[in-house]
Amino acid sequence: MKTTQRWLINPLSGNRAGERLVERLSGLTGLAVEPIRFSQLEEQLLSARDASQIVVAGGDGTFASVLSCLSLGETPVVCMPLGTANDLARELGIAQLIRGKRVEDLPELFAALPSRSLAIWELRSGDRVLPFCNYAALGYEGAVVHDFDAWRRRAGRSGKAINRLMYAAFGIRRTFSRLTGVTLAAAGESTLTCPQSMGLIATNIKSHLGLGFSNSHSSPFDSRIECVLTPTALSYLRIVASGYGLASPPAVFASGESLCIENIPLGTALQVDGEAAEPVSSPTATISLRRFANVSTAAG
Prior knowledge:
The strands form 4 sheets. A 6-stranded antiparallel β-sheet has the order 6-5-18-15-8-9, with helices on one face. It contains 9 helices and 18 strands. It folds into 2 domains: about 5-120, 3-Layer(aba) Sandwich (Rossmann fold); about 120-290, Tumour Suppressor Smad4. The model has no long low-confidence stretch (mean pLDDT about 90). Helix 7 packs across helix 8. It is α+β, with helices and mostly antiparallel strands.
């Protein structure tokens, strides 16, 4: 019988806010609380299958690691935001739900949430398979995330405001990035030649950059992936401005149940769910559905 709510917390997320969360929750009855050990994640998820609900506290990279893991069963997962962007938690309504709430009240609040099936995707390039929940980006955004990730490793702990400031600074530095000659084919559709752009985003959700929206069509609950091109820096300004109702998000360039991207320049920067990946080493990449995961949601 499933009775215990299991909390898996990334202790390093949110300037080590995860460590403090473990301490605050450890004394509450009816909860099993433990820090995530990524080297043992498969075993942790297998042992959590008998829980009534799994609450994962961390950032978008943490959520992607858990939700894409094949050891994850049908137990519903709550994505509690502790990161910088928290795009998936925003998309699922969790970030809005917990705003202003006491930590001690969250277990009961989460337990009452309904669940839905969330699409998990994977990008294949050469011999690499990269799962993602939110988005994968080639070109400009990949380069910015790579720069930001390198700075974060050097700088160590920093708050959300500093993280966003540094991300913006790296974004300005990479403004002249260009992605040219790329072709794109969605399943069942003819091949399209992408116009010269700063970058390409394959996205499962609307929320982007922790501030705005990359498009107005994506749904994490369907089996379609959308592709958005960012021709100029104005495209990113529209993404941010859309979060404040000041502009509409960029248009969708292509959409399908899978995508095939060809003629990618070798060495093109790549990021998945806000985490830097190794640069592209193959001119072709495919994006397809990996699995569905059961998530608790407060979204309408």
